[in-house]
Amino acid sequence: MNVIISSIDFILNWSRANSLWPLTFATSCCGIEMMQTVASNNDIARFGSEVFRGSPRQADLLICAGTITHKMAPALLRLYEQMPEPKYVIAMGACTCGGGMFADTSYSVVKGIDRIIPVDVYLPMCPPKPESLIDAIIKLQEKIKQESIKERKIFAQKHNSKLKETCGILEENDFNVTRLGV
User: Fold this and answer.
1) pLDDT, tens only, 59-77
2) Yes or no: is domain 21-165 CATH 1.10.10.570?
3) Which residues, at least 6 apart from 122, have a Cβ–Cβ distance to it below 8 Å?
4) Half-sphere exposure of 132 (CA within 13 A, CB side)
5) Which residues share a beta bridge with 23?
């Protein structure tokens, strides 16, 4: 019986890994590099990811590129929740992964989208080149080929969004607010 289940897992994971349909969430300069990845010079179509979707209900990969503010965080969470399972996330750019250059000086920037949604692959450059995004997609494909459906559900359940608990507002200790003396 284990042979049949493992064979089905292998076929499902292979087909899922080679047909990722990304949903774009580009807010800054990283979005331009993501667009360049689709162009003929880099041709992301070689990896089965050329069908960028405009609706979260048709996508299974969220490529989040750019700065995420606290005002934008509920919209990002809503898009993620509307995606069908199994869903994957690539955090593209230093601002997405940890707040980037705005982490210490701006109170309105989320210091990493992993506080909102679970992230599968981090790509922390400013801005990452198209080749780096292709490498991240290849790493995500390798990860998908190795996982089982049960492990994926456990991964998604482990992540507890602080945004859900506070009704759309992250707590003040998440901001790391620097108050200037007057």
Assistant:
1) 888 888 888 888 888 888 8
2) no
3) 91, 97
4) 19
5) 53, 62
